[in-house]
Amino acid sequence: MTLTVMDWFCGAGGSSQGIDAVPGVEVTLAANHWQLAIDSHASNFPRVRHERGDIRDLPVHRWPVATGFWASPECKKWTGARGKKRDYAAADTPLPGLPGLQPTPPEEDERSRALMWDVPKYLEGVQRRGKLVLFGVVENVVEARTGRDWDRWLRDFHHLGYKTRLIAFNSMHAQHTRTPRSPQSRDRLYLAYWHTSLGRDPDFDKWLRPQAYCPGCDRDVYALQVFKTPGRDMGRYRQQYVYRCPHTTCRNRVVEPAVLPAAAAIDWSLPGQRIGDRAKPLAEKTIRRIEAGLKKFARPLVLSADGTWRNDAVPVAGPLPTRTTRKNDGLAWMPYMVELRGGSSDARSIHEALATVTASGNHHGLVAPPAAMVMRNNGSTGDGGEHCTSAADPLRTLTTAGHQSLVTWEHLLVPYYGNGTARTVREPVGALSTRDRYALIQGDVDIDDVLFRMLEPHEIGRAMAFAESYVVLGSKRERVCQYGNAVTPPVAELLTSALAETVTGEDLDRHPDQTWSIAA
Fold it and tell me: Which domain holds residue 227?
């Protein structure tokens, strides 16, 4: 049978892409308050019924009931909580058409958090109509867990006959999906629920445990999420929880799940502008931040390439870290091969064997970026270096404002014989003989020679793991806003897959044959 899902606060359609990718599941109704987001969603999902407006003003009691219910209530009023307890406002205000008093408009700051209550209210209203939503997910920022009414909000689900599972998950760890992977570190809260009448529980371990290499066991494992503080159930990756090997032979050592780097989202064909040539100089704090980043990254780096225990890159001038039986190091500015059909490996060094070439076409691409870093342009508490990230690492969380920029510079190969000319490391090296002929020039970088540009909307779309063919309408600013508001599709797909199995009782393939490419 086909499971139908309603997508509330659907935005441009990140969650819908993930839900629709699950075999036997389809989105049938989507609602959002922003007309442009609805237009973007409708451009990609023409068969879906669309409702535009504030949920509190729409006739939800007349909408058809779906099997599943995904809701991503507005989160911007939670992000400033800074650990403080906040109320879920207007808890007793009913939705239109449901029994009770008519809604009274709360203050704007509280209305945002009040949307959390609308999910169990809708589920209750459906049951009063003699119908039943079998499963669903509520997505929000991790700060939503700090709300003073969290326990009462959660009890509403239990009183309606649902079991729940609170999930802290980072988008970059959503692996082996039918949707593109996300080269972005994005921590979010997910509350999954399913009705007790189903008689079984989802196998979340099957879908949410990421693959990682354990150097102690010398093998790939499915890592276990472990919170640093016993009893804690929500937080951010590395700050509040880590992943550990499930085997005691290595004493359950901390492991690093394999992730996709920011370089996979960047369009290297787009040049930046030389800072020294800008008509309008960059702000002084931006210059200082770039300089701090150059101190970290303006040299060749050796870094872990397959998700191991070692997180920090080291300069090529120093000794290599301890070697294991795995080829787990790469040179940050070296070209690398990208496998365009998915599979268990997303990229590999050009020093490794090429992945299998199939009859279905050319599935390999050579990526040869210049030396680069991604810089966040929002507030800083240090010298700015902490806001700079190598292109070999995932992007930091994307927001609706598009605060990330690309900074690039060049390394040169200089021949020291005859009349040869210098060339960048992006170009093929000249003919090599039995004698040493080339020198690598990697001295201090002149800030005026550095290239700078903001990330373009299509690059942000890649970082959010939107399909290459997905249409997002509007101006550059409006498209960035829609991307920043979205749910990353692979996480929606994983959670929906686990819940769909619970409804149907049929197993879904965890490792589908992938044919897409995030950067094709």
Answer: 211-255
